[in-house]
Design goal:
It comes from Owenia fusiformis. One of its GO terms (molecular function) is alpha-mannosidase activity. Pfam families: Alpha-mann_mid (PF09261), Ams1-like_1st (PF22907), Glyco_hydro38C2 (PF17677), Glyco_hydro_38C (PF07748), Glyco_hydro_38N (PF01074). With 1059 residues, the protein is α+β, with helices and mostly antiparallel strands. It contains 19 helices and 54 strands. Helix 10 links the parallel strand 16 and strand 17.
Amino acid sequence: MASYMKDKAGTLKRIENFIHDKHGFYDCCNLRGRLHPKRVPVIIRHHAAVGRVTYDEAIAGQYKPASVGDIFGPTWSTHWFKLDITIPKDWEGKEIWLLWNSQSEAMVWKDGKPIQGLSACPDDYLRTDFILTRSAAKNEFKQTLYIEMACNGLFGAGLRHIIRPPDLHKKFALTQAEIAIVDPMVYDLLVDMEVMLGLAKHLPEQSHRAYEAMLAANEMINIIEIGEPKTYERAKEKGASFFAKGNGDSQITIHAVGHSHIDSAWLWSYAETKRKCARSWSSSLLMMKDYPDFTFACSQAQQYQWMKEDYPSIYDDIKTYVARGQFIPVGGTWVEMDGNLPSGESFVRQFLYGQRYFRQEFDVTCREFWLPDTFGYAPQLPQIMSQSGISRFITQKMSWNKNKFPHHTFHWEGLDGTKVLTHFPPGDNYGMKGDVDEVMKTLNNCEDKGRIDNLLFLYGYGDGGGGPNPHMVEKLKRMHNTDGCPRVKFSSPDAMMSLIEEHESPKLCKWVGELYFETHQGTYTTQSQIKRENRKGEVLFHNLEFISTLALRTQSSSSLKSNAYVYPADDIERMWKLFLLNQFHDVLPGSSINEVNNDAIVYYKEIQEKGQALLNGAISAVFQDGKGPLVNIALNGLGWSRTEVVEVGRSDEPKTPKQKRKKMKTEVPQTGRKLALVTVPAYGAAKVDEETGTDVKEDIACNATVDKQTESIVLQNRLIEATVDKIGKVVSLKMKSNGRECIDGGCGNQFVLYTDRPASYDAWNVEHYHLETRKEVFEVIEAARIVEKSRLRVEIKVNLKISDSSNIIQNIVLDAESPYLRFNTEVAWHEDHKFLKVEFPVNCRSDVATYDTQYGFVRRPTHANTSWDWFKFEVCTHKWADLSEYNFGVAILNDCKYGFQTSENVMRLSLLKSPKAPDEVADMGNHTFTYAILPHENTFQDAGVIRNAANLNNPLIVKPINGVKESLLNVPFFQVDTDSIIIDTIKKSEDSDNAIIIRAYESFGGTCVATITTSLRFSCVHSCNMLEDVDPEEIRTPNKTSIAVDYKPFQVKTFKVKF
């Protein structure tokens, strides 16, 4: 009898070399080397395609002989291969695989259909085999396949590192092209021993079961004689006896769900993502035929739509396996969007279009919000989820936080008190490989031990796609009921979450408020142009849908049916979906390659051009009668009356005969712009003429004076007085009502430049140590001077030097009746790893600052008492941020920025970053943006900060009209009697031309009763959710023009108003 030495390390190494010798030293005598006992090459012919062509275009190409060792490229090109396969006659009855390695991604096509994806870059994401037949029959001896080779890896083609800009000249070598017999017994033994080795290495050090696994595998090696199949059978019996020992009732259940996280764009273009989806999803669909328990969860309705358009055979299979419960739509959104930057309405549309798609295509309403890879989660998401048919949330990104998050399964309570069941897979990964160490981490890392018995395990190659492979499934099958490890079960997110809801929910803890992500804060600023287009696009959609709805309702009773307005529903939906695509969590945050960013800008341009044309058409449909003179009207797309200065053209514009006869009482200052002060009702319009552009009274007129001693310029109107020095710094800002000085130390509007060299993730990150490199921008190219001085507007212009390559031109503007000082800013930005901010030290003390967020606001500390506080050194805001003490405060407003910091009393708005990876020209060029400072008495709510920020972002629209319908002017089409309620959206119902949707929310954080009034008489009103599913009970209304509603703090309510 053999004498065993207790050499654990040596025994483990022996097992490892026997099943997988990565250097190939022992392939001649180990089990791995016997997996493919026979191989033969295949005949290859090659066609270099022009772009990403269709199958029909590809097979019509000219094919030339090719062989292993040939080099193909460059990056992003496509090459097609025709494989003439001849299976040797003596292989009849054998399982045959195609082995293909082109060091790239590829797709196998057979009989005109995409069958399975292949990948070999990076090499730890290998999928280089395709099963030709499980048992070769004579009629299968001759086969023809096509392989579509994409000259990129799973993670694009970064130069020297995956997140660096692509190497556009990269070449890819064909290193393997052959068919091989597979020995199924050898394969089974390899899987058995791999799992046993994992248990031996990753069970607790002193675990009896770990040693049992090691010694059983070691004994199997002793039994096996390479090339002797009978010994394989005896070894298999030994392995079976080991796995036959089941685990106990106390073991938790790990729910294994296949997944392939595919970024809709990132280190590759949108166009390449379509092929990534096809490669990954076809592979999983193929596995479903062999593994009926195998499940695959897949999010993003946009990607499903791409398959429907470009790969109909894959889409047909998807529908089949969705019906069988194996292919599982999850998430309920159009794409996996960023979780911080989109507006509330953008979030709603993600769910609206996503859930409607899954309902229409698969008769499925997703119950789980699926967002595993975005960079933080806004506090109103629970309410938006809940009102979109979703009560559960799954992510894993919080595992990246510097402070370890205290839960993996918990109730997440949002801003309004809505709670959703939330699960973070404790494996801290959405792309696991089915290994024992991952299963054990899922068990041991769980922060809710004793409270929870069900955990999610997401496996499959992700980020660049690929998905699960049979080897992963086989490993997990061995762990279904094996002593020493948790019980692994092929399952679904719904099955797991249902068990938690039924048995474990009452024991779970609660987390209140935002899920703040403690890294990647640079994504609030990187790719400034994309963020600007996002904000401007959200405003455009808001105005377009309101005016188009108004046109539909005001024209619906027209007796001239041929001239009746047609609501552009299809155009708006198409534009929204394109816009939502750009909110993907690597596009809007700015963490994609240059090609993606260029595509996004093209999409934004298309949206703006089409949207503005539709908006102009809707305005004309509502207000123009074509019978009168040309007049200017101002439209207000917000739910309160506004008195503001507007521009109505230039003094050098040609005048109409009517204008020549009748002088407009408007201001024509030095700039040549004609200005008028106009009052416009809530969601309404007013004429800008002699009646609205009347002479400005002295008590509300603006003024600008120069202090000759200090060279400072004093700007003032009825409400505020600002003193600006020669470099554009605001040295003083006072409210006229109380004389309170708002600026501390005379340093407001100070531009500051920081060195920005993150330790990793250049475009994503900004590290806390950047704050140690502060440098003021103070060199003047052109000192501040008055460029406009009228009763309606005073304006200063200044030009500052950032460096020899970059400068700032800023116009500091104060309008009559404006409570804020506005900074219209242009920056020529050509820096390397620099971060530009503007700061306002204010005379205000508070340990919290308040920031705008979707449908409300969030408070964050101004100090760094704890590590949780400290890592909020850069936070996300939307239209405003406020620092207030009792009865006084200062707000900073902006029209397209998102990054902010309030440190003690210094408020800093982040303006521009300059990372070099993955886009080496990120943010280089010219930028235009506006911000403002608003001092106020009382609370920021009562002082109108929220409304003024909305005004800044959605200026009055001035449009010349050829004959105006006077009866529709000065009419508030929609308004509300309570200041805290904001009517955020007015649109046509998705399913009816005779109904509109009104969405309004409570913005102050308090309970109230509000009455929403419209000038459009309706027949009835119903509450509905954000998917526009209607509550059957009708809301009682005092009349047919108003809706009385109770609101709780930060509550969002949606109404379907029928006519």
